[in-house]
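Bug #77: duplicate submission created two jobs. Keeping one. Sequence:
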Amino acid sequence: MNKQPIIAICYDFDKTLSPDDMQAQGYIQSVGYSVDDFWKESNELASSNKMDQNLAYMYMMSNKSRGRFFLKKDTLQELGSKVELFPGVDTWFDRINNYGKLKGVNIEHYIISSGLKEMIEGTKIADKFEQIYACSFYYDSAGVAVWPAQSVNYTNKTQFLFRIEKGVLEINDQRVNAYFTPEQYRVPFRNIIYIGDSDTDIPCMKLVNVHGGHSIGVYNSETGDKTKVFRMLEENRIKYYAPADYTENSILEDLVKKIIDRTLANEMLESIHFECVRNKNSETASQSKGEIKKDDLINLLEDSTSFFNTHSVIKLLNEIADFSFNQKCKLIKCAIKNSQIRYILNDPDLRDFYKRIVDGINNDEANIIRTIINNEKKR
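Kept job's structure:
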């Protein structure tokens, strides 16, 4: 495990870090469409062909650029360089990273977006992310986009959270399906913050919430429209909401810093928990499954609060041939300290069991058990 806890902040892009869809900030205009008409045609293409909406817009981008320009990676990156960002985004990552260092926490940033990876790579913040998970093209030998390489929609966005959790970041690394014990997670969900703006983020937000992480809905402070974040809060999709204002001392910055502070405290407790688990495993490593079963049954008897449970546990204990001296002493203490066990000690099953347990043990507690059993016989 990393000595310092890691917090992963995952972002949608369009309308989360940028005020508008990235395609609407240069590309759509370059192919002679209005923004509304482009999305209308793209959505109709998806609907009429039972097509994923992201694949539809990628097809539109490839198709509509023909005869105008070659849709290449550097073309998309150039368009990405012109994408507008919300206030403070350009300095946000360094400020949050520095706060994490001050607190002894490593901060990592990830994009999980249905937008285009190539355009995000063209923005001035591209180098701030550990990974950019987004739709992308396959390019032919001439470098022209000819086929989708990746399509990231609102449901398969969640796979990337599992990749981040396990530290299996490469898109085709099948180890994401491998079993990990809780202490092996590189970034457990409780240390993930997801920031998004709309319905396409809901599966990720819900997943993070359910597993103890933190989801934040953001809204454009210029429009002041909180309709979406109010609904997501009402439906328990998000824990918090804030304006998409990333400037220093903003509401969002203060909120994320508070989450960092809380995470640090949580991880201190988690480290103690895992140390307890390691110590337990070390101390019980030499015990056989049979011995562990005996101890578990003795503990169940000790904690029994009903006659039914006591008889049920005694039935299982009677099936065990041998007990160690320490186990016998603990069973004797159970019968003396637990009043409801003591009350039914002369029921046939308990009497026969405890006669076997006290046999050969000569101490005050064993003698008390013998006395109870023998006195009942004399009545």
